């Protein structure tokens, strides 16, 4: 647990109360004296409490020019880390002292450089760089008791440039690389265009959105002097209780791999030449997404063949795309400590997957070996094992310099070979050179005016539009008409914060006290989207809070529903991630079920459910009581308009489920690639989703019914739009091997997808290539093998208009 981060949240609430007191002019003059033990002082001055939220909203905004263009670079060629260092980097490396080398290997969090008054503490920076020659800094100041709540790009850049300036004058005088969690756009930079959560990007089944998000995220980050983003996540969601489902691209290795690949292309592009790009960091290697009980950072027990078949492929795609850096994961895999594992970080990552770039630890993970997991006797032991067994290059320490100190001591005492240190420092220096940090270490002020441009915001809206998944629509309950009287219920209806989720403005999203205020002008709630589209005020009762607990107007809902034509319930989830977001059941608060049920029992008004969630909460009987259900995931700050548009029929939805939606807790770990004879009875399946149009499919044509290694076959199918609206139609191609000797085969596997606009009355023919090699799998001996047998090619499995063609798979 990042206690510092957690305290920040709690501190914000307490601090707000303290601040309210301070601002209150009606305080009693003779207040009792309360003894406060251990008040923090600096040079005799009493400090503000830690994490004091000054509510000092940065009034600066980027110019956000409506449109812009940046120089184009060739992004099609492979650009990634090389196995060899450039000769000037080698010379630099050889010129460094052991202390300077060790300093390059640590990354500190920015809170260490903020004074207790919330302002930048240059003395602290100078002395740290002088003594420890720090290589990297991470984090957003707003998560660290800074003066400004959310920094505008200008102010963020002032911060990073100040640190850079000191780094260039003190210690090793090597520029720092600044890292930040930009999970869905530059989500910590005020005005930076925030995109829908990755799970929504996956739901679009259109990788252009992953690319766009990466591209804009890179430029906005770079404007603030951030060179390295800890994104994308390539973890494949294996447990629906897990608090980080929304940060990933769903449960399918192929889909996740495609999205990861294109995210990295967008983030990095030609990063060795293009200064509007950043280094991406694919994370968390590996096995993080399968906590045995669904709780964050709990043990993962994963058969090695399963790991290679389902969890490694998205990381492989990341490396294929040239990802510059990788983050190892928290904890252990099969009881082996990941950070010190040669099998995981040596054999698998470096040798088998051929990763040449920089490997960073997750937060405090080296120290955690002794403090948390008890897999090391002390810090020096932890550092020694990390260096000698694993392949880590940089430690996100992030609060101390023990990693550097221990590294120096270990090399001096001969317990770690200096060649091992050179290997890592060489990679770090090369990364800095590739990003242009030696030539231009400071942020580019010209990029600032592009931040928050309408051009970017529209791309975020496009992604949100395509990510909305219509799962049920009986009696054409949707779309709504402007002449209907619609009642909207639920706290998430009127909140940008709740439809965006965590990793936005703050680690856990804005706190209760701040609410949407911190979004400033950047974004719109569903409520304002609906007002915008209908031109009318909305008929809205809060009914229940974001935790689903009854609140303002709960008792009025049934009465109001009687006089409405339709009731739309927005079911939300409080923004959270990591351990803060742990839950024990997928069941929602009872008040929420009871309210929807009462409307269903006591009125004839059709019910529409909108699910705004990090993860799939159980719908129970609400599923049959609702006439329409739409899963909107966490579509981000610019989704109010797209959601209103889809509700009022301005376009036809086109999202598809990127994960299996369980009915009950026992299905939390069920994926659609379960063995084919296994129970598969979820609420909604992977790939499920409909639009407003009736789309039919022709029979599938294949150019051969024999599928053999080295002889790909072509597969075509034609979709026809019988509706009256344009349909953006995703087509998903699955295979199912009906019989496979020895190793059970899965119900389905996704092999390809495509998406095209089809006008009313028009048809479109989708063409795919299928290879026998794709049908191979990892057996218990860890070999990739083919096993002959009949194979069904299924288009749009799990949807009513699915089509099947059969071929036969041969081993040679
Ligand atoms: C998370 C990482 C993140 C890091 C830095 C960790 O707790 O697991 O995903 O990049 O913190 O904030």
From TrEMBL:
Its EC number is 3.2.1.21. Residues 729-799 form the Fibronectin type III-like domain. It catalyses: Hydrolysis of terminal, non-reducing beta-D-glucosyl residues with release of beta-D-glucose. SUPFAM superfamilies: (Trans)glycosidases, Beta-D-glucan exohydrolase, C-terminal domain. Residues 1-20 form the signal peptide. Pfam families: Glyco_hydro_3, Glyco_hydro_3_C. It comes from the Eukaryota. GO terms for molecular function: beta-glucosidase activity. Coiled coil: none annotated. The keyword Transcription does not apply. The keyword Hydrolase applies. One of its GO terms (biological process) is glucan catabolic process. Keywords: Glycosidase, Hydrolase, Signal. Belongs to the glycosyl hydrolase 3 family. This is beta-glucosidase. The lineage of its organism: Eukaryota, Fungi, Fungi incertae sedis, Zoopagomycota, Kickxellomycotina.
């Amino acid at each position: 647990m990042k206690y510092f981060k957690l305290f920040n949240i709690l501190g914000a609430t307490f601090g707000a109360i303290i601040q309210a007191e301070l601002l209150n002019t009606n305080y009693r003059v003779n207040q009792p004296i309360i003894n406060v033990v251990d008040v923090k002082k600096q040079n005799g001055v009493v400090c503000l409490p830690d994490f004091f939220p000054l509510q000092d909203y940065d009034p600066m905004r980027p110019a956000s020019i409506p449109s812009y263009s940046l120089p184009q670079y060739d992004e099609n060629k492979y650009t990634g880390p090389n196995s060899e260092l450039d000769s000037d980097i080698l010379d630099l490396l050889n010129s460094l002292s052991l202390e300077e080398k060790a300093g390059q290997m640590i990354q500190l969090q920015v809170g260490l450089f903020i004074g207790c008054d919330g302002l930048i503490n240059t003395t602290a920076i100078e002395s740290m760089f002088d003594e420890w020659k720090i290589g990297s800094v991470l984090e957003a100041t707003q998560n660290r008791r800074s003066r400004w709540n959310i920094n505008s790009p200008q102010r963020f850049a002032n911060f990073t440039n100040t640190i850079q300036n000191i780094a260039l004058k003190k210690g090793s005088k090597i520029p720092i690389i600044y890292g930040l969690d930009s999970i869905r756009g530059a989500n910590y930079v005020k005005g930076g265009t925030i995109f829908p959560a990755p799970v929504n990007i996956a739901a679009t089944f259109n990788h252009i959105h992953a690319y766009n998000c990466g591209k804009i995220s890179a430029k906005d980050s770079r404007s603030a002097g951030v060179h390295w983003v800890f994104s994308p996540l390539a973890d494949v969601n294996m447990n629906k209780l897990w608090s980080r489902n929304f940060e990933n691209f769903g449960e399918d290795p192929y889909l996740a791999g495609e999205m990861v690949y294109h995210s990295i292309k967008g983030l990095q592009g030609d990063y060795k030449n293009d200064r509007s790009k950043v280094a991406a960091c694919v994370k968390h290697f590996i096995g993080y997404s399968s906590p045995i009980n669904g709780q964050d950072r709990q043990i993962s027990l994963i058969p090695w063949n399963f790991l290679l078949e389902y969890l490694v492929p998205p990381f492989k795609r990341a490396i294929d795309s040239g990802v510059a850096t990788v983050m190892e994961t928290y904890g252990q895999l099969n009881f082996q400590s990941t950070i010190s594992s040669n099998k995981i970080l040596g054999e698998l990552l470096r040798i088998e997957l051929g990763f040449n770039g920089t490997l960073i630890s997750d937060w405090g993970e080296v120290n955690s070996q002794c403090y948390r997991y008890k897999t090391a006797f002390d810090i020096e032991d932890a550092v020694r094992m990390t260096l000698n067994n694993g392949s880590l290059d940089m430690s996100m320490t992030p609060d101390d310099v023990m990693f550097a100190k221990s590294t120096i001591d270990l090399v001096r005492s001969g317990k770690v070979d200096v060649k091992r240190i050179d290997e890592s420092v060489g990679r770090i220096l090369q990364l800095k050179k590739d990003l242009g940090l030696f030539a231009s270490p400071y942020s580019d002020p010209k990029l600032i005016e592009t931040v928050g441009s309408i051009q970017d915001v529209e791309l975020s809206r496009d992604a949100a539009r395509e990510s909305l998944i219509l799962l049920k629509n009986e009696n054409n309950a949707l779309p709504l008409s402007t002449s209907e009287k619609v009642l909207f219920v639920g706290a998430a209806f009127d909140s940008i914060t709740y439809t965006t989720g965590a990793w936005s403005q703050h680690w856990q999203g804005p706190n209760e006290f701040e609410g949407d205020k911190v979004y400033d002008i950047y974004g719109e709630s569903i409520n304002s989207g609906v007002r915008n589209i209908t031109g009318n005020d909305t008929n809205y009762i809060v009914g229940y809070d974001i935790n689903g607990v009854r609140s303002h107007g709960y008792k009025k809902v049934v009465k109001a529903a009687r006089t409405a034509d339709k009731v739309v319930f927005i079911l939300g989830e409080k923004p959270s991630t990591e351990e803060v977001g742990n839950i024990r059941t997928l069941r929602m608060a009872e008040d929420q079920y009871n309210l929807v049920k009462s409307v269903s029992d006591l009125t004839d008004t059709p019910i529409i459910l909108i699910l705004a969630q990090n993860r799939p909460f159980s719908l129970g009987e609400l599923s049959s009581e609702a006439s329409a259900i739409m899963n909107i995931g966490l579509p981000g700050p610019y989704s109010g308009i797209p959601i209103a548009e889809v509700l009022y029929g301005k376009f036809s939805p086109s999202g598809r489920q990127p994960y299996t939606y369980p009915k009950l807790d026992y299905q939390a770990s069920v994926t659609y690639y379960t063995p084919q004879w296994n129970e598969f009875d979820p609420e909604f399946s992977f790939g499920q989703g409909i639009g407003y149009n009736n789309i039919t499919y022709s029979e599938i044509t294949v150019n051969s019914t024999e599928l053999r290694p080295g002889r790909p076959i072509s597969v075509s199918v034609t979709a026809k739009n019988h509706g009256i609206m344009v349909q953006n139609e995703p087509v998903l191609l699955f295979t199912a091997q009906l019989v496979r000797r020895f190793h059970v085969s899965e119900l389905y596997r996704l092999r390809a997808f495509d998406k095209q606009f089809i006008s009313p009355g028009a048809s479109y023919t989708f063409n795919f290539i299928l290879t026998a090699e794709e049908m191979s799998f990892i057996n218990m001996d860890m070999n990739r093998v083919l096993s002959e047998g009949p194979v069904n090619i299924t288009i749009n499995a799990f949807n009513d208009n699915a089509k099947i063609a059969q071929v036969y798979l041969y081993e040679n």
